[in-house]
Design a protein that fits this description.
The structure holds 3 protein chains of 3 kinds.
Chain A: H1 19-24, H2 29-37, H3 40-50, H4 62-67, E1 77-82, H5 91-98, H6 100-114, E2 118-123, H7 128-144, E3 159-164, H8 174-181, E4 205-209, H9 210-214, H10 216-229, E5 238-245, E6 251-256, H11 261-268, E7 278-282, H12 302-307, E8 316-321, H13 326-340, H14 346-363, H15 370-381, H16 391-405, H17 407-416
Parallel strand pairs in A: 1-2, 1-4, 2-3, 5-8
Antiparallel strand pairs in A: 5-6, 7-8
Chain B: E1 2-6, E2 9-13, H1 19-25, E3 49-53, E4 62-65, E5 76-78, H2 82-97, H3 113-121, E6 144-146, H4 156-164, E7 171-173, E8 180-182, H5 197-200, E9 206-208, H6 209-213, E10 222-223, E11 226-227, E12 236-242, E13 245-251, H7 264-268, E14 283-285, E15 292-294, H8 297-304, E16 311-314, H9 321-331, E17 336-337, H10 342-357, H11 365-368, E18 373-377, H12 381-384, H13 386-406, H14 414-421, E19 427-432, E20 444-447, H15 450-464, H16 476-490, E21 495-499, H17 506-521, E22 527-530, H18 537-542, H19 548-555, E23 559-565, H20 575-584, E24 585-592, H21 597-600, E25 604-607, E26 616-619, E27 624-628, H22 641-649, H23 656-666, E28 689-690, E29 721-722, E30 769-770, E31 797-802, H24 816-821, E32 827-829, H25 831-836, E33 844-849, E34 852-860, E35 868-872, E36 885-891
Parallel strand pairs in B: 1-5, 16-17, 16-23, 18-19, 18-21, 19-20, 21-22, 23-24, 24-25, 28-29, 31-35, 32-34
Antiparallel strand pairs in B: 1-2, 3-4, 3-5, 6-9, 7-8, 10-12, 11-12, 12-13, 14-15, 14-25, 26-27, 27-30, 31-36, 32-35, 33-34, 33-36
Helix pairs in contact in B: 9-22, 10-17, 13-14, 15-16, 15-17
Chain C: H1 4-14, H2 24-35, H3 40-49, H4 54-61, E1 75-80, H5 83-87, H6 90-101, E2 114-119, E3 131-133, E4 136-138, H7 143-151
Parallel strand pairs in C: 1-2
Antiparallel strand pairs in C: 1-3, 3-4
Helix pairs in contact in C: 1-2, 2-3, 3-4
The chains are: A alpha/beta, B alpha/beta, C alpha+beta.
The complex binds flavin mononucleotide, iron/sulfur cluster and FE2/S2 (inorganic) cluster.
The site of iron/sulfur cluster has 14 residues of chain A, from helix 14 and helix 16.
Amino acid sequence: MSEKPLTERIRPDGAPVTLSEYEQAGGYQAARKALGGMAPKEVMQAVKDSGLRGRGGAGFPTGVKWSFVPEGPHPKYLVVNGDEMEPGTFKDRLLLEGDPHLLIEGVILSSYAIGADVAYIFLRGEYLLAERRMKEAIAAAYARGYLGKHIFGSDYNLELYVHMSGGRYICGEETALLNALEGKRGNPRTKPPFPQISGLWGKPSIVNNVETLCNLPGILVKGADWFKGLSRTPNGGTKLFGVSGKVRNPGLWELPLGVSVREVIEECAGGMRDGVSLRGIIPGGASTDFLTEEHMDVALDYETVAQVGSRLGTGTMIVMDDKTCPVGMVRNLIQFFAVESCGWCTPCRDGLPWIEKTLGAIDTGKGQMSDLAMLDEHVKWLGPGMTFCALAPGAMAPLGSALKYYREDFERHIREQRCPWK
Amino acid sequence: MATIYIDNAPYEVKDGQNLLQACLSLGFNVPYFCWHPALQSVGACRQCAVKQYRDEKDTAGKIVMACMTPATDGTRITIDDAESRAFRAQVIEWLMTNHPHDCPVCDEGGECHLQDMTIMSGHTYREYRFTKRTYNNQNLGPFINHEMNRCIQCYRCVRFYRDYANGGDLAPFASHNHVFFGRHEDGVLESEFSGNLVEVCPTGVFTDKSFKQHFTRPWDLQSAPSVCVHCGLGCNVTPSERYGALRRIRNRYNGEVNGYFLCDRGRYGYEFVNGAGRVRQPLARCKDTGELAPVPKDEALALARAPQGAAIGIGSPRASLESNFALRQLVGADRFFMGVPKRGHQLLSSMISLLRGGPARVPSLREVGEADAVFVLGEDLTNTAPLMALQVYQAQYRAVLPEAEKAGIPAWNDAPVRELLQDKRGFLALATPAETKMDVFAATKCHAAPDEIARLGFAVAHALNAAAPAPEGLAADVAALAAGIAEALRAAKRPLIISGPSCGSEAIVLAAANVASALCAAGLDAALSFVVPECNSIGLALMDAGSLDDAMQAAEGGVDTLIILENDLYRRADRASVDRLLGAAKNVVVLDHTLHATAQKAAVVLPAATFAEGDGSLVNNEGRAQRFIQVMPPQEAIQESWRWCGELLGKPWKNLDVLLAQLGAVLPGFAELAKLAPPADARFGGQRLPRQPHRYSGRTAMQAHLSVHEPQIPNDPDSAFTFSMEGFRGAVPAAVVPSYYAPGWNSVQGLNKFQEEVGGPMRGGDPGVRLIAAAQGARAEFRGAPPAAQATRGAERLIVSLPHVFGSEELSALSGPVAERAPQPYLAVNEADAAAMALSQGDVVELSVGNAQAVLPVEVRASLAPGLVGVPAGIAGIPAVQLPGWGTITKRTEG
Amino acid sequence: MLSDKIKHEIEHEAAMFERRSGACIDALRIVQRERGWVDDQSVKDVAALLEMTPDEVDSVATFYNLILRRPVGRHVIRICTSVSCWLMGLEPMLAHLEKTLGIGLGQTTADGRFTLIPNQCLGTCDHAPAFMIDDDLHRDLDPEKLDAILANYK
Ligand SMILES: Cc1cc2nc3c(=O)[nH]c(=O)nc-3n(C[C@H](O)[C@H](O)[C@H](O)COP(=O)(O)O)c2cc1C
Ligand code: SF4
Ligand code: FES
């Protein structure tokens, strides 16, 4: 069995790991170690050395991101991205509900490394259980002196708050999240400047994903080499991988980075249910490109998935079976993105609804062959660089790849003027 | 300077610009929506896409938004490659998916930026075949019409209204393609700058509601360059006419004055021109009925003519220099008076001498926006000089901009700059009798009686320079306040002191000048700006005539003829004094466009032209003389007052140029006036300048119900313009640019083609000539003496007048939409005073001040300085006595 | 008028931020928790409390999915309409739900008992289909289970 530093403490009965349980299992050792003698720079270096990459979807090296935070001005902020609104993604929920102190310790370490004075955990509005458990855990940590003034007896002060989102997928985008946290409309911000320079209330800020931060205690205690060794590829560490769709055993598992698609689907998820077979996989949340049966042996790490034209994303796969209409599935995905567009930039705000209506027409037998050209064009025009943020390009990932892999299905809908699955 | 390459050709551009600015300034056509030269870039609409190349070898390139890309040295782009063209066409197609395509019935049709950009971007065939989303509209009050279905979500409206103009009640609502721009509920837009939405909105969402009342297609409007007559700032405007009625006012860009914006008083105050109260024929008092009745012109002139040396002339700060001068010529310099009561008269001459005396700079309105610390004494700017308030807001923003630039964020990158700066603002200190709208943006504010404001000012000057006279017995908290203000001003590079006559206190004005002098003495580039009440207050004051009180004195014991020029004396002085003055004259002649209370008492009324029907010059608060040009031929017997005076004199001036030549000869200080616009005989390519656009329609049919012959084009002896669509259409001096049409640019955005660079001066220089120059470098002198602490007088209270942007000014108050926004008469008392006087909100009181009385409802205002009682300035029902003044208040008992 | 309890809770949130307006969304959630939705007066009250204009508050309120600006029934059903639930049989389940309640998405039953609202992915895709009723998450749904679940909400 490989190591599972993220999930090993999580109780099978669904109750959260308590503070004392967490400490008994070696918890808060990393925070004690860092605050007891390491300089913030050393913490940052340790994270850089580990090669940890962000688990929020973009995979940017965490230590490098931190190093852009300027030394001088205060306050500085750390913001935990627990928005998790990407369809098909359900990984951070497990960590938030199952082992809240792991995240708190991760927050302490990262805040210390960047010199943050205040940290916020931004939770998606529906995660009410996570909210309750995080707030209880935070209160317990405050009571022990692990948060607040002079934590762990050091000179370092840190306040940690939970903020519940008003609910909008775009709030997962780090700059939109900052606006939302400021109590504003969640439109994304212009980059540059990046949040490290001008973030929350114009102050230097770091936004990290929940899972990213949960990796830190292990890295600080056991070191970079251990962390790298967890993974089967040069990307360090383990990753939460999930599967949803018509597999026998949908779920979430902590696995080494670099496991193959096949291992996750066949071994962990038990393969496809009786009577259906696999037709496609969206590997890392709704905004990644489809992969197909031919990609079953692709190793799940950042580079390899990118090489075959998709992204590792959040690592939570959505499996499409052969009894599901690909047009209907893409239509559902685009519906999501169209509604979740923040309404700031033209291509996304007005382009996605058009795509949605066109897919609706095709799906209900009212499509025209020229619609396919229109969709192809839109995949290009809503791509990276054309829109203000990455939401619309993300939406084009499943659409563009579906038009590539399942074009015949689209054409059949139009030719037959009906959905062949209905 | 940076060199950028567009299609491999090098171009020099100014440093610190983005590509869109740079390309537009170079004359390239790049379509855009969310960008606006005053609002800068946010990158929302994606319309300005161009292709950028890494270097000479890069042939693939990548699409970037021009407005979000810095034009740094070596930047290589192409505007016209197939891919970026296709993307721009696609952006328009997206924007148009939900647009109602209601151009034929849209008020914006024909001058619509969206129409222009659609054509420019090449979106022709509509492929979207699904339903459109629709919205409900809101009633936003008398100024702005709302039609949300036309919205293309460029976010300009809210960026102007909130970020630029500090308004709070317009916002975006909802999200995705349901984003809605409006108020949280129906209701009047509160900002006094709301009318700019009409021009900021690139399509027909926010349109001019007053124009809608008498709509005509924009290309059927006849326009000429003009100057706003509703306050002393001299904003440049473009009024437009059709069928003899003034239809609307639009902004006219003057880089040194109002830039891109107007206030709502200026935009909506014009309806007095079309008003029922207009005088259109000479009137004389009928012997039988005693009423004023129309008489033939000759008869009127005969009745109005006085024997040589037997007339007294009263001029007006709302009449042109030319008309005032003509009256002066008619009655003789020593029998010409300003028509402004003593206190205001004295304040004006004092302000002029302070401005001239230096050493402080006299800033243009543009320069007001560049101050890095501002101290305002005694003026409620949003109500007395709205555009100056708007510029102070910009000054506050620009003062902290260097912080963003230090963080590597260019000034044009609007959203990140605001995010970084949060609500950091440049220093602003306000001292006024009551709370103002600007208070919330001020670092320091104080509400006090006029003398206390003056004392604060003197104390600040003294804190800056010990040689400046200090007030005696200053309270510790006021001293601390003064020290704080002094410190903040001293820390600035370009501090600005603003004051004016609203408090009726010369001490305030002197104190303001002392502060400015002290700052200059400290080596700072300080500026001093005075607000003045009327469009030609300064011009008239420069003529150096006596006050209204002097006129009254001169008339005492009888006068043959009293000639009153464009002046309702009942607004200037109390009824009894004016009655006495009018009664002293055998013959009262009024020249004006509106039959006001004074005109109603006249024996003869001669119909004067408004700014829309006449030519003339006005001098604004900074001493800038500017020309307004006749927009429409005057109807019936209407003509400029100066023409009437010429006829009364028996030696009419042939045209404006002849009069100006004489004015320059008689009063050399005005010699430059002739340069304000090309002379009437100037020809461009052998032609006159057309007032009507190319597409003006119905010329031959307009009069067909009267005569099938096409009427002669009316003669315009006074300017190089003609009442026609034919004429010269090339580059002309800014003073005679009637509209901003350029090929492909039918909307106000075409202005880009008339500026030296976007947002810069007009090509060939901004219009206007400065008649006042500060003696910069003069030694700092300190003048005046601080008044004693505000006294109390037993049961008497000090009555001050509180200005209202809507209602306080005479002419705009005659305009329906503005009148709707004017307050009802009230009497404001401070909470504590109300308690002491046993008054509560809504009680009815009798006010007795000077020798006038009024019955008014009580308004309890927490923000009014203790001891003061405020009444709205210039509102009907409020006595026209000189304020501040001492008065008594008695509560009316029931019955 | 906001109750003292609500005001107190909002003040608690406001203390967490550099600026009072930071608590805008929290305040709207607090109001909604007590009243089920956010009415116009509450928008004004929240604005006054947080030193914002009503327009600013409503601008924020209408941006977010979870802030309801229309009245709702006693119980709010938020049914996940996103991809994994769709794959796992959302459509038949939704049809059954709509039939049982006699309402469509966005509507409230005539007796004011339920409001049915579509919701984006609930982050429980391995137990699809799923919905929330008020604060409770219900997972691995199928049409048969629905009636028993609904019966618990009076
Ligand atoms: C539309 C959009 C939605 C996103 N949603 C999330 C999210 O729910 N959670 C998350 O951690 N990151 C999300 N991201 C990525 C974040 O912008 C950001 O990259 C991430 O939080 C950084 O954290 P990491 O470096 O730890 O991965 C999203 C990005 C986009 C463009
Ligand atoms: S792509 Fe544009 S409209 Fe879409 S979410 Fe990003 S900024 Fe908003
Ligand atoms: S003008 Fe450049 S994106 Fe709108």
